[in-house]
TrEMBL record:
CDD domains: AdoMet_MTases. This is Class I SAM-dependent methyltransferase. Keywords: Methyltransferase, Transferase. It comes from Streptomyces pulveraceus. It comes from the Bacteria.
């Protein structure tokens, strides 16, 4: 289940991609399938081992094109072990809401992104997330849990403040918002409640079968209750201040 829309965030074969806070690796795997040179980084050692196993299995099964590469590694989002301007693309999906120093993470992503490079950032959307927080303290008051809820303008302001230029936004996963509301209402650890079990079956069926009816329904509902907010941005070839000076000089 991808949150980044690769029709709005195209990859070229050979692009060097950092999936920062990769988790189980869903975006890293898709980039690998598309011929990228992928680095999947997370601080969770167990998840990184699983991602590495899946990369190896994909290579063995011939799922990645010739020239594609994939590496899974542990690392700290606030101290990335890469030189400046190392990547053509950076993806950070459902991570920034966990990190106290989100400006520091943005600065590190900008540092390792090449001029002209692209970045995709996804976070829980304010409205659906606020419902979850209202229904259940246990949803977010856990170690490593969500520490903030972003409003779209707030996140875009921080993206611009980091020197990036946003070029598009959208919402995703509308069908998943009610599932999490049910989880919060019946207990985030209570998977046996009938409404939770029934809705989970619906989501699994939707993911596996991809029926047209639910695809259309989700597209219609995403602007209203899409659970994730997705922003795309580029890194200018010149620093922001220098680019503004050039624009003024040309006017």
């Amino acid at each position: 289940m991808l949150t980044v829309d690769f029709t709005r965030f195209p990859l070229a074969a050979g692009d060097r991609v950092l999936d920062l806070g990769c988790g189980a690796g869903r975006h890293a795997f898709e980039c690998y399938r598309r011929g990228a040179q992928v680095v999947a980084l997370d601080r969770n050692a167990e998840e990184i081992r699983e991602v590495a196993k899946w990369f190896a299995a994909m290579k063995e099964a011939g799922e990645a094109p010739e020239g594609a590469t994939a590496t899974a590694m542990e690392g700290d989002a606030l101290n990335l072990p890469f030189p400046d301007e190392s990547f053509d693309v950076v993806i950070i999906s459902e991570v920034m809401e966990h990190i106290p120093d989100d400006k520091g993470v943005l600065a590190e992503m900008v540092r390792v992104l090449k001029p002209g490079g692209r970045i995709a950032i996804t976070v829980p959307r304010y409205g659906p997330e606020k419902v979850c927080w209202t229904l259940s303290d246990a949803y977010h008051e856990v170690e490593g849990g969500h520490i903030r809820i972003y409003k779209a303008d707030e996140l875009l302001g921080k993206i611009r403040g980091a020197g990036l230029k946003p070029y598009g936004t959208h919402h995703a996963h509308a069908l998943h918002a009610p599932y999490w509301w049910l989880k919060c209402a019946f207990g985030v650890d209570n998977d046996k409640a009938l409404p939770v079990r029934a809705y989970h079956k619906l989501l699994v069926w939707d993911i596996m079968k991809k029926p047209m009816a639910t695809r259309v329904a989700e597209q219609l509902l995403n602007p209203v209750v899409g659970k994730s907010f997705v922003a795309y941005a580029t890194k200018p070839h010149l620093p922001v201040a220098a680019a503004q000076d050039v624009t003024k000089a040309e006017a």
